[in-house]
Here is the input.
Amino acid sequence: MAKKIIEKTLAQPVSMSESVTLIDVAKLAGVAPMTVSRVLNRPELVHSDTQRKVMEAVRTTGYVPNLLAGNLASSKSKLVAILLPTIANSIFSDTVQAMMDGLTASGYRHCSASSPIRASARKRWSRRFSGGVRTASCWPARRIAKPRTSGSPAHIPVVEIWDLTDKPIDMVIGFSHEEVGAQVAQHLLAKGYRKFVMVSVDDPRGLRRCESFQREIAKHRAAKPVFEVSPAPATFQAGREGFSRLLEKKMPEIIVCSSDTLALDVLAEAGSRGISVPRDLAVMGFGDLSSAAYAFPALSTVRVDGARIGKEAAKALLERFNAAPDTPKPVVHIDTGFTIVERQST
Amino acid sequence: MAKKIIEKTLAQPVSMSESVTLIDVAKLAGVAPMTVSRVLNRPELVHSDTQRKVMEAVRTTGYVPNLLAGNLASSKSKLVAILLPTIANSIFSDTVQAMMDGLTASGYRHCSASSPIRASARKRWSRRFSGGVRTASCWPARRIAKPRTSGSPAHIPVVEIWDLTDKPIDMVIGFSHEEVGAQVAQHLLAKGYRKFVMVSVDDPRGLRRCESFQREIAKHRAAKPVFEVSPAPATFQAGREGFSRLLEKKMPEIIVCSSDTLALDVLAEAGSRGISVPRDLAVMGFGDLSSAAYAFPALSTVRVDGARIGKEAAKALLERFNAAPDTPKPVVHIDTGFTIVERQST
DNA sequence: CTGTTAGCGCATTCAG
DNA sequence: CTGAATGCGCTAACAG
Here is the structure.
């Protein structure tokens, strides 16, 4: 038997056709399989001489661990589920990128799915994800209810991002969309604007920003904004059309958009109609799409640090993954805030 | 023992704390575990009466399959690795979205990673991905070389997307970037332009489009374009800065950008400088970012159907996954083409 | 620090 | 159409 291993390893590695397992490595290194496992996963528990021997054997055999087996034995998938409304052309891309980077650095991977996936509980839980990330109003919370399944803890860490919520499932990292709406309203009122027009996509968070904006306007007895909703998701086209419909009514003083995608679109439509921004029309966006405020000086916007949200989310998850099982859950409720970026004066 | 199962299932499902496995379901349904497995995975092999009994038991126990175990037993992860330069603010988002939708509909999931991940072979192969998707020039092909590992086929299906390549690893779905560069050059020459300026991000495909463009220009003895490269990835800011540097030299007639992100940025910078597009300056983009050509009438661009690429990639992978093991590999080499979209005349 | 024992939960492969 | 036996490859938990 030992002979067989030798044959396998002495043959040209490239032509080896049989698969190599922990046992093969162990035999070649003259140690127990468990020791090989330790060298690969928790090397600090193994004598350095043994480590060297084992790594040597790993190299000559070309061993690649089988996480399918490892996951089963340890009941840990090291897979994080990311559930977002969309990743296309999205304000979430910075967040996803940052999160991805944080997780992969620690050996975790992520699987993402977008909103239309209304998988059954069976499908959603069968991969035994180690953790989850979602926007708060992505799905009703009850859908996250964890069935009692084999080989997984009673609860998995979940981070709700891009929002703050009163009844979090677990951890929360984001900012208040009500606050955004209110502050934008105050900001614009202070600048002297009184006649507002809004364009929003049909997205829960966008609509909440708009509603809050309108409440704040009402408080100050300014005229009720004209309000136009486009179907989600945000596309450049949506903004154009919403804007056009509004123009049919009356030329507004300022147009408040629920996203930068819409705002850029309004900018474009204005340009093609010979309307000068900001001279004839002011435009306010949201989300700081690719540093929109910098790229488009005529645009005011609300800057959100999506990358920070992703980074913090990854950090929060990793901390929980690494915590001892009986550690009390730390409270993670981070308000990442936002910044209103005034257009560059011209 | 049977009693125990009954107790578990008759207790309030919500309060059950022990995990439920195939065996529990089988006992409750009075069948063998294998039958339960069949009902869940290949119901067509099971009598409908048995199916009903089993599904009933599945429901009352709240059973959720453990794919960690299933994957190991069947040596199939149903996970697809997606390797792209970036997903942030990216022309790939449509592609990823379409691919995701196609794969999840068939029970597959995807794990994505972006360029900076230079994981070791050990890490890259240990999850036993069922298939892979990458851009052709994302990594050198040799890095895809498959080590002989346990529990996985000698080769996995790989689709290279967003490019055509002479020596594909396996399947290819995309278009020729050389062709784009050449055709754009011809198009613009035909429109009467002679003095070109280019801005590109430092991306392999973008640079190839530019080089091809320049070769074509040279063929027609037009002036060599001024060429400005910004570091990757594309941001709106990159375009602005590249454009500004160019303006210091001379006001161009037309500016050709390696992506729509850059093009929109140039549009913005032009706007803030009082340069009218297209009257004073023509701008050409690439990638049809959010239907840029529609949203920004002054912009000409090259429309690429990213969603189609994603859809075809998913389809190609699924076909290979479902094929019998000894089926000869179908040749998949799809040129999805592109369309030059002329700006809307004003 | 290292080895041994004993599964993880399911699907493959036959036999019936 | 259904069942029984077997083991995927690895790691937890302990013993030494």
Notes: The longest helix of chain B spans residues 306-322. Chain B touches chain A through 79 residues (CB under 8 Å).
